[in-house]
Write a sequence for this structure.
């Protein structure tokens, strides 16, 4: 569980994750395999990390494979 305090280790891990999972090829391979909710959370993560292009790519590649679905809903129900 992540609290509001981001440790240096977590920041490093997140930066590695964002870099690796923001690659176009990786997104194209994985986005179709994830569920709508998973892609939504992935997009949230990239957006929060200042990578809105990657967030949009996750959603676009997912939707391209699956067709329009729940993941296109952008209602915030936190
Ligand atoms: Zn979907």
């Amino acid at each position: 569980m992540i609290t509001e305090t981001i440790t240096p280790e977590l920041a490093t891990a997140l930066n590695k994750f964002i870099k690796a999972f923001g690659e176009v090829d990786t997104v194209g391979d994985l986005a179709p395999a994830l569920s709508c909710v998973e892609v939504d959370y992935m997009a949230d993560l990239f957006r929060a990390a200042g990578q809105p292009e990657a967030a949009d790519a996750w959603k676009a590649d997912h939707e391209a494979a699956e067709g329009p679905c729940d993941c296109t809903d952008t209602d915030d129900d936190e």
Summary: The helical segments are 8-21, 24-30, 36-48, 52-66. DSSP finds four helices and no strands in the chain. The CA atoms of residues 47 and 55 lie 6 Å apart.
